Amino acid sequence: MSFQSKNEIARALREHRIQPTSQRVEIAHVLFERGMEAGADHHMSADEVLERVNADYHRVSKATVYNTLRLFEETGLIRAVVVSSSKVFFDANTEPHHHLYDESTGTLQDIPAEDIDTAQLFHKLPEGVSGNDLDIVVRVRGQATSAG
Amino acid sequence: MSFQSKNEIARALREHRIQPTSQRVEIAHVLFERGMEAGADHHMSADEVLERVNADYHRVSKATVYNTLRLFEETGLIRAVVVSSSKVFFDANTEPHHHLYDESTGTLQDIPAEDIDTAQLFHKLPEGVSGNDLDIVVRVRGQATSAG
DNA sequence: TTCTTTGCAAAAGATTTGCAAATAC
DNA sequence: GTATTTGCAAATCTTTTGCAAAGAA
């Protein structure tokens, strides 16, 4: 998904049965204004969203940002990517894809769905689950200071 | 790793350059007493560890449990598995393997390393990173209430 | 008007930290 | 005897919640 105008955003929200209030539109605008192309940085924490949405003047409160992000996630408009216990990224790209998280740099990047083969995995998935229901986070560990 | 006696545990801690105090040995004992076989439930939250270590009488404080788990993780004795923003599991099995997390049930299970093929992925890893430095969490999404 | 949403500040839950007392080597 | 570790309670950080005011249909 990639929206430019607030109108498009409002329409998209309605399609997800979300009443497009001005706060919600502003938040969605922040989420979707960065391109969704591979390599584009469209991963934001709640705090980043809060900061960006209020960058020039106060538009939305913290509670509303959190609640709205949760609402967007629950309705499938965006996805939450959990990379560490205190780091949740929100991803406006809901096309099937996965994530690569580099612990040492804190960087999150997309992985095309086809770059990871999970064929061997399917027999242990709950029934009815398809590949598109999988969210994979590949974490690159920093050096593990393992004793030698 | 799989230890039975406190002596074995103390030795293992020393090998990781961790001074084996009684609290640390008790915590390690809790972590390692469950078998490491596939299917065995050896994933515990900090709180579970705290509960189990103090099950019959008070042995270790909460702060010490948290600090010790972090210490164990930093020295590579155990691994932390992040499955959601408020759910970190500790895994006493440090052999290369991955994890499958079922959102709807909250269940975490092991995935043998060879069940996921990441060959396509290697060109986007930082240099010097090998397959053993990857921790993969496959999250099975509940139904995403996606709008139709 | 009636239902929904927002905002604030307080609450909650998980983890960490400061510092004095206890323990280890 | 000196350095390390523990425990408590307070602090911190992120996210959620209660409730009155503001906004939408």
Describe this protein's structure.
The structure is a homodimer of 148-residue chains. Chain A is 29% helix and 22% strand. Chain A has helices at 6-15, 22-33, 46-53, 62-74; strands at 43-44, 79-84, 87-91, 97-102, 107-112, 134-140. In chain A, strand 4 (97-102) and strand 5 form a beta hairpin. Chain A starts with 5 loop residues before the first helix and ends in an 8-residue tail after the last strand. The model of chain A is unreliable at 144-148 (pLDDT under 50).
Topology:
The structure is a homodimer of 148-residue chains.
Chain A: H1 6-15, H2 22-33, E1 43-44, H3 46-53, H4 62-74, E2 79-84, E3 87-91, E4 97-102, E5 107-112, E6 134-140
Helix pairs in contact in A: 1-2, 2-3, 3-4
The first copy, chain A, binds a DNA duplex (25 and 25 nucleotides) through residues 19, 21-24, 46-47, 60-64, 66-67, 70, 85-86, 88.
How many strand units of chain A? Answer: 6
Largest sheet of chain A: 3 strands, antiparallel
Task: Give the count of helical stretches of chain A.
Answer: 4
Which fold name corresponds to the CATH topology of the largest domain in chain A? Arc Repressor Mutant, subunit A
Please state the overall shape of chain A, judged from the principal axes of the Cα atoms.
globular
Let me know the CATH homologous superfamily of the largest domain in chain A: Winged helix-like DNA-binding domain superfamily/Winged helix DNA-binding domain
Reported CATH architecture of the largest domain in chain A: Orthogonal Bundle
The strand line-up of the biggest sheet of chain A is 1-3-2
- Top CATH class of the largest domain in chain A: Mainly Alpha
Helix content of chain A: 25-40%
Summed over residues and divided by their number, the pLDDT of chain A gives a mean of 87
Give the amount of beta strand of chain A, in percent.
15-25%
Counting helices, strands and paired strands, the structural category of chain A is alpha+beta
What is the number of independent domains of chain A? 2
Specify which chain pair forms the largest interface: A-B, 43 and 44 residues
Please provide the ordered H/E string of secondary-structure elements of chain A.
HHEHHEEEEE
Q: Uncertain spans of chain A, ≥5 residues at pLDDT below 50?
A: 144-148
